[in-house]
Amino acid sequence: MNQNDPQTWVIAAVVVMVLIAVAWAIERQRRSKHLRQRFGSEYDRTVSARGDRAKAEAELAAREKRVEGLKIVALSQADAALFAEQWRVLQSRFVDNPKGVVAEADRLVREVMTRRGYPVGDFDSRVGDISVHHPGLVETYRAAQAIAIRDQRGEASTEDLRKAVVFYRALFDELLVSRDAKTITASSRARVSTKAVHQ
Predict the structure, then answer these.
(1) Which among 2, 43, 76, 91 would be 20 to 30 A from 108, CA to CA?
(2) 50-55 mean pLDDT
(3) What is the pLDDT of residue 4?
(4) Cβ neighbourhood burial of 130 (10 Å; 0-12, 13-18, 19+)
(5) Residues 84 and 78 sit within 8 Å (Cβ to Cβ)
């Protein structure tokens, strides 16, 4: 093969470009698979909302990078027990004051997030941060927030409020005992029956 032949250089350049394109496609496929596995249904929702897979993946990757830069800590057993007791008291008041309980549930979730190390900015920021470690609970968190907003306008029924409390409780429980906090025992979580909420 004559290295001084222009055709040789053209062929070599084409081969290099093809190899680069193949490597880029493989990397993009690997990244897409990783983000799908990490974010679950939140991946599909973000792609649908953005209308463009590349933009959606860039957003999800940015969320991931942001949360990895945070110092997320496990709750101490004392803090976990205290929060669990606050939730028990909150839940026991549902029958008498369901509207007040929904607002209190939202506050408690934000308080636990703060104690764990999540910055508690606006709702969209909280959802973005939560979606990285708890993607399966993002939709119910959004639903709880939507009900809380309707409640502020006087448009939520008692059944809506019950659902909101159940939705907040799911995220609250997950934040209370995280995957990195295995030392917190079931007794310190003080899990309580949802009987009051269902009445």
Answers:
(1) 43
(2) 90
(3) 64
(4) buried
(5) no
- What gap in Å lies between CA 15 and CA 60, rounded to an integer? 33
- Among 132, 197, 135, 130, CA closest to 169: 197
* The pLDDT value given to residue 106: 93
For residue 19, the model assigns a pLDDT of 73
| Cα-based torsion angle of the residue sequence 118, 121, 122, 127 in order, rounded to the nearest 10 degrees | -10
What average pLDDT does range 65-92 have in this prediction? 93
Please give the Cα distance from 137 to 150 (Å, whole number). Answer: 20
Q: Are 148 and 185 in contact (CB under 8 A)?
A: no
Q: Write the burial class of residue 54 (CB in 10 Å: 0-12 exposed, 13-18 middle, 19+ buried).
A: exposed
